[in-house]
Amino acid sequence: MAVWKLPLVIGVEIAVFILTSYCIDELLITTHLLKIMHYKLTYQNSLQSLYRGIYFMGFSTGYYFILRYNNERRKTNELEKQRLIDIIYRQKSEQELTIAQNAYLKAQINPHFLFNTLDFVYHNIVALSPNTADAVIMLAEMMRYAIDSDKMGEFIPLGEEIDQVENLIYLNQMRKNYELGIQFHYEEDVRNIYLIPLVLLTLVENIFKHGNLTDKGQDAVIQVYLKNETFYIETDNVIDQKMRSAGNHKGLNNTEQRLKFAYGENILFDYSSTESSHFKVLLSIPLKQLKYPGETLKPLIDNGK
User: Fold this and answer.
1) Which residue in 98, 144, 158, 261 has the most C-beta neighbors within 10 A?
2) Model confidence at 65, in pLDDT bands (50, 70, 90)?
3) What DSSP string describes the chain?
């Protein structure tokens, strides 16, 4: 409200109050509720009404300003609270950015040293132990794939990751004298599918980390296939009871978030433990939601696989 309007509003309020008081008094006299023979709107009566009007208006105005003050104070406190929240969020973001930058710098240094070391080890043992030298090469390939996965693009051919899964299985079998019970089955067509990286590799690593692969007759099974225009990954393994309380499925939770970020909510990613102490994972993605170059998947969809 403009400042110049305030006196006008106050004057109108006072005039209305005086006239209202006069009308009420006249009504009371007319109805004989107030026993006065004659009542006139005199200067003295007006002053009395003015006094009462100012009295009540003072209280009401004070009450109004108290409410307005409290309201403004509440808004100010909310703005200040929001400002502090924004400051805390910005500081947290800057801290996380610093941590990420430091991790990135370390990642630039450590892989270079790692690959040079593995190359040195390979050339020193290849003549003495060809099998061990091959294992070093496979390990180097896996490490390079994992480190360079963020540079390959958002989606990569699944065939590249299948190769690394086979390397991972071979290395673990070699380490355990080829006594691990694990089966890896995939259809050749799935190699051409483009998927976000490190999904299949994470699921297989989870089997080696938390699974019991020495239980005879209960091999861990990994299946990658196409069915009814849908892409599937299934894993099934016996749970290692010594590792049952060690994991909190953080890797699987991260994988699920990455999948939903890339493909939306119209996918299925389910993992659970069974009464028979098995751990099962099921991933299904409609083929139409998968990213692929050109017409790579069109024949697969047309054939109804």
Assistant:
1) 158
2) confident
3) --TTHHHHHHHHHHHHHHHHHHHHHHHHHHTTSS--S-----HHHHHHHHHHHHHHHHHHHHHHHHHHHHHHHHHHHHHHHHHHHHHHHHHHHHHHHHHHHHHHHHHHHHHHHHHHHHHHHHHHHTTT-HHHHHHHHHHHHHHHHHHHGGGS-S-EEHHHHHHHHHHHHHHHHHHTTT---EEEEE-GGGGG-EE-TTHHHHHHHHHHHHB---STT--EEEEEEEETTEEEEEEEEEB-GGGTTT---HHHHHHHHHHHHHH-SSSEEEEEE-TTSEEEEEEEEEGGGS--STTSSHHHHHTT-
